[in-house]
Amino acid sequence: MPETETSPTAAAAPIGRRERKKAATRQAIADAALRLFLARGYDDVGIREIADAADVSTTTLFKHFPVKEALVFDEEADQETRLLSAVRDRPAGQSIPAALCEHALHLRLATADGDAEFTAFLGLVDSTPALRDYVHSMWLRHADALARVIAEESGLPVGDPGCVALAHFALEAPRTAHGRDNPREAIRRAFALLENGWTAIDSGGHQ
Hints:
- By secondary structure, the chain is an all-alpha fold.
- It has two domains: 17-71, Homeodomain-like (Arc Repressor Mutant, subunit A, Orthogonal Bundle); 76-201, Tetracycline Repressor, domain 2 (Orthogonal Bundle).
- Helices cover 63% and strands 0% of the residues.
- Helix 1 (17-40) crosses helix 2 and helix 4 (76-88) runs parallel beside helix 8 (143-154).
């Protein structure tokens, strides 16, 4: 993923030379893959070509990225940290669905404004079914952690069905932006359902 405001390099504590070398190799592979994917398309670039571009063996590449799709999404742990922080560190008075909506809008759309590289990255993901499916499954892996934080912040027991449902639907909601002329409005509308229930969405007033 391009290094943007939504994907900062995480290095809070000093690390040793070996770890720095591993991190540099991983970054070089990810950068090479993204350059090739953006230039020619995800499906037209092979693993060996990426390894050659990064000057590593295919064995080394697979040590860092077990599947091809992972080359595009190399900061999953950081993404979960920011997702949970969106709930824990939300402003006083802001609801959990509103905080998650704001996070989704920022992560999926705001950084793309005026950022050609990130816009190209989003275009790559949106136009590649394998990547859309991977990012979807990747986000859903955060559902349990998000449900626990929602329960903690709401004073409810871990495993509460409402918290589990909200976590799952909140992670699904950004998918409604795909193929929309106004993706921001699509995401806002999806989260409005989570915030207010169906009666706020059904303009006809049907129950």
